[in-house]
Write a structure and sequence with these properties.
This protein is α+β, with helices and mostly antiparallel strands. Strand 17 and strand 18 form a beta hairpin. The protein is built from 34 helices and 29 strands.
Length: about 950
């Protein structure tokens, strides 16, 4: 009985140890330990039963049936293994919170295991009893049998409970004791239920003798126990080695402080935590264990479901590696590099995740700074208007910008780094020009780039590959032997320069060469003619009646005429011929020729261009042209001389009726030089005090009284003597000097009249150019104020042509002047073509009959009739009339008889010096008194 109890205790102890070992390992290996525990417990229980039976002496011969004996051994092994597996598997599920496969909680699993194990032990006992063969009949007390079964189940509940606990020492003792109690309780209660009735029964079949059975049972039990103890020993040594390894790994893990190394369970909750994780994330192990890994993610990532996606990726692919923002305990963020690796057991089931997190915030800042520099570089290179290529010392491409690819129409992958210079040239030119470049062109391109690298002044090299593609190339060497080449597409610049050059050399309206281009052509042609013994004909063309077209239809119509004429002239030009628009309605033409007939033919073609009117908007615009021609070398050897001579001939052609073309003659130059000299001298006449005024008296015819004086301008030239206004006034009007001269005359006449002791008027002539100046009324006002002359003593004389030039402006100025009180007289009345209209437009204070009518009155009845008509017109309009040119008594008598109011002329008084301060002698009144006395 003591041996049986010892075997029972040893078997129970071994079973509990194996059960606890199974709890410490993963599910796969745990099944083997549970099988070992079941076998140990089954053998131990079976051995305990049969050893105890050996201590039972029935007093008769006994034996054991082999089959039932073997079955009694298998029953406890199988049932115990199943019972232990049920209890342990249930504890696994309870620990992981997974009850999906079984609704049983942990206590229910232990109870089920206790029932299965207890029933197995009971079945083993009664099967073993059935294997006992005696010459007696066995009787069983059902009550005791039931109690024995219950006695085998109840102690097993606490036995399994203690076997599952972590407190190994107390659990070991308690679990061993309760298992032994269950076995002993079953055996002794079950044996109490047995009673024997001796019979003469002869055993049949093979039986095992009790002594033999004792040896076998003892050997088996001892062997199982020894094997179990050896296995446990080996497991302990292995466990110790694992613990040592884990301890060393734990020390390594805790010693790594710059990385967070920790474990997650299968649901993503923290199951281990190292010092590096504590330092990096700020959580202590006791604070973070059991928390979800989502705690380390930013709110934005949590909202996007990133934690679950990361775990799912790691589980699906085995590993996940990435970077992102992570949170510390204090809420701060850091840029982390994370490696998450799934951990599986031997069966491939997911156990958890190993996670390594490293703070790379500074690395990210450095990378961002480098990336930003790279982006800035790429942005600068990408926004350059020039293409750029960087080559190393081996003439291989290191870098190129997008503009270079764009210039040559290349794709992003066309020029990878490492492309040689020659390969780049071939690829680029083939793409841009549509065909592969020749070997010579490739060689020349390479030489140009190398020459640019050697050029320390970095002078741009311009290369025109075609009319549609030209570049400017600059290369700069680098210290390492490489260089940078920039390519500037100057195709549009070349086109713009060509357009600008064309615009600079051509007229914008007609497209003909302008004066600058014409002069350049003439210089080249003169040089060529001198070398080749040829002649050069130069013509200057001025349109006739072109101003009438502009005034009548507007300048837009005038532009149509000029454009059409340019088209006609261009159509008739031949080789060595040119036509140019010099400005306004003036054209220039020229031709290199060898015979006069060639020049005549050229001029005839040009003249025909002006023969037909221009039709526009159903209107025929009629015009003509005056052409002046000079020739090299006969009329000059320099361009300016030839152009000037052609211009002189053109003015002669314009002055001569019926002649369209006029050739230069030397006499034209003499007249022109004299005229130019006179114009130059006239510019200094006022400063040199060469101008003077003469005053011719004007008299009333009725009583001979002096009415006033007309101021007459004279020029006393230092070498040419006195020059008549008829000669220099037209020159002054052409050069614009008439404005300064007119102002001087008006101021000088007013100043002189202001010194007269009487109220006689002073009459001053106004030029047509003066009359249309906007400043004229202000000038008259200013001079009257400066000289102190009363406006009523000033009379301004104008001609009809002065008003016709710009009638509206002229009449506007006259009305302002008349408002001052100044008298306005119409001079040379009767010689114009709109006298009546002019008199109707403005209320003149006086009409002056042109002297030409009075000088012809002795021989021409028509002249006398005109004088009578003008006098009658003046009387009807209540406008006084003054007759000029009274040189004889007959002229005077005619005026007296016709009722003329005033007169002036040599008969009444010649122009003389300015009147003295006291005018005591009045020549007109004395002459009239003498005439009256002679006639009674």
């Amino acid at each position: 009985m003591l041996l049986a109890a010892s075997v029972c205790v040893m078997a129970a102890l071994t079973s509990v140890l194996l059960i606890q070992k199974a709890k410490q390992v993963r599910r796969g290996p745990a099944r083997y330990w549970l099988l070992a525990a079941g076998a140990s417990a089954g053998f131990g229980i079976w051995a305990t039963h049969f050893i105890a039976m050996l201590g039972y002496t029935p007093g008769m011969i006994a034996g054991y049936a082999p089959a039932l004996t073997l079955l009694s051994l298998l029953i406890p092994i199988v049932t115990t293994s199943l019972a232990l597996r049920a209890a342990v598997e249930t504890s696994y599920k309870a620990a992981q919170g997974d009850n999906s496969s079984s609704p049983m909680p942990l206590n229910s699993g232990i109870a089920a295991g206790a029932i299965i194990m207890g029933l197995g032990i009971s079945a083993m006992h009664y099967c073993g009893m059935a294997a006992l063969t005696l010459p007696a009949r066995m009787h069983w007390d059902a009550g005791y049998v039931i109690v024995s079964v219950i006695a085998s189940i109840v102690p097993l509940v606490p036995a399994l409970h203690f076997a599952m606990r972590r407190d190994r020492h107390r659990a070991l003792l308690a679990g061993t004791g309760f298992i032994a109690l269950a076995v002993v309780g079953l055996h002794f209660t079950g044996m109490t239920a047995l009673s024997l009735t001796p019979e003469r029964i002869s055993p049949s079949g093979l039986l095992i003798a009790p002594n033999t059975m004792a040896i076998l049972v003892s050997a088996c039990a001892l062997g199982v126990v020894i094997v179990a103890i050896l296995a446990l020993g080996m497991a302990r040594r292995s466990e110790k080695s694992v613990r040592e390894s884990e301890r060393q790994f734990s020390l390594l893990q805790r010693g790594i402080t710059d990385c967070a190394i920790y474990m997650l369970d299968a649901s993503g909750h923290v199951s281990s935590w190292n010092i590096g994780a504590e330092r990096l994330k700020g959580y202590r192990a006791n604070e973070i264990l059991g928390m979800s890994v989502a705690s380390f993610y930013t709110p934005e990532d949590r909202a996007d479901g990133l934690p679950a996606k990361t775990l799912a990726t790691a589980e699906r692919e085995g590993k996940w590696h990435g970077r992102g923002w992570r949170m510390r305990r204090d809420g701060s963020r850091f840029w982390a590099e994370i490696t998450l690796e799934a951990v599986h057991d031997d069966k491939g089931a997911l156990v958890g995740f190993a996670k390594i997190t490293r703070d790379i915030t500074q690395l990210k800042a450095d990378q961002d700074r480098i990336a930003e520099i790279g982006r800035q570089r790429d942005a600068a290179l990408g926004h350059m208007h020039q293409g750029l290529c960087l080559f190393d010392a081996n003439e291989r491409l290191v870098l190129r910008n997008a503009r270079f690819l764009e210039m040559y129409g290349l794709d992003e992958d066309s020029l990878p780094p490492g492309t040689t210079l020659r390969e780049l040239i071939v690829i680029a030119l083939t793409s841009r020009l549509g065909q592969a470049p020749s070997a010579d062109r490739i060689e020349v391109s390479c030489q140009r780039i190398h020459a640019g690298v050697r050029d320390l002044d970095h002078t741009p090299i311009h290369v025109a590959y075609s009319d549609d593609f030209a570049i400017s190339l600059v290369s700069r060497g680098l210290p390492d032997g490489g260089w940078v080449s920039t390519f500037d597409d100057i195709t549009h610049q070349r086109r713009s320069e060509a357009r600008i050059a064309h615009m600079a050399m051509h007229d914008g309206l007609t497209g003909l060469p302008n004066r600058t281009r014409f002069n350049i052509w003439l210089d080249d042609a003169i040089e060529h003619a001198a070398r080749s013994d040829q002649n050069l004909g130069i013509g200057v063309i001025d349109l006739d009646r072109f101003k009438d077209i502009n005034d009548t239809f507007g300048h837009a119509w005038g532009d149509v005429v000029l454009t059409e004429l340019a088209s006609r002239i261009s159509a008739v030009l031949g080789e060595n011929e040119i036509a140019s628009r010099l400005g306004g309605d003036e054209f220039g033409i020229a031709k290199l020729y060898s015979s006069e007939s060639e020049l005549a033919d050229f001029l005839a073609r040009i003249e025909a261009c002006f023969a037909q009117p221009v039709e526009h908007d159903k209107q025929e615009l009629d015009f003509g042209a005056s052409i002046g021609v000079s020739a090299f070398p006969a009329d000059g050897e320099e361009r300016e001389t030839l152009l000037n001579n052609a211009d002189l001939a053109m003015y002669r052609a314009k002055a001569q009726l019926g002649d369209t073309i006029c050739y230069y003659e030397p006499s034209m130059d003499e007249n022109a030089r004299a005229r130019r000299k006179l114009a130059n001298d006239l510019r200094q006449a006022i400063e040199r005090d060469e101008l003077t005024l003469l005053y011719q008296p004007q008299c009333f015819i009725s009583d001979g009284r002096l009415s006033g004086y007309e101021a007459l301008l004279r020029w006393r030239h230092p070498t040419s003597g006195t020059i008549s206004p008829v000669e220099f006034i037209p020159i002054a009007e052409e050069t614009g000097q008439i404005l300064a001269i007119g102002e001087w005359v008006l101021r000088e006449a007013c100043r002189e009249a202001s010194n007269w002791p009487n109220s006689h008027r002073v009459a001053v002539n106004l030029s047509p150019i003066q009359l249309v100046q906007p400043e004229l009324p202000a000038l008259v006002t200013r001079i009257l104020l400066e000289t102190g002359l009363s406006p009523r003593r000033l009379e301004l004389e104008i001609t009809e042509s002065a008003i016709i030039t710009d009638k509206d402006r002229a009449l506007h100025n006259l009305r302002q002047i008349k408002a001052l009180g100044v008298a306005i007289a119409m001079d040379d009345f009767g010689t114009g073509y709109s006298s009546l209209d002019t008199l109707h437009s403005f209320p003149f204070d006086k009409i002056k009959i042109d002297k030409s009518f009075l000088l012809q009155s002795d021989q021409n009845e028509q002249a006398r009739a005109i004088i009578r008509a003008v006098l009658a017109l003046g009387q009807s309009l209540s406008i006084p009339v003054l007759a000029e040119g009274v040189e004889t008594a007959s002229h005077f008598d005619l005026l007296v008889n016709e009722g003329c109011q005033e007169a002036q002329g040599y008969y009444l008084g010649r122009p003389g010096e300015a009147p003295s301060v006291l005018v005591a002698h009045e020549p007109g009144s004395l002459k009239l008194a003498a005439l009256r006395a002679a006639n009674g």
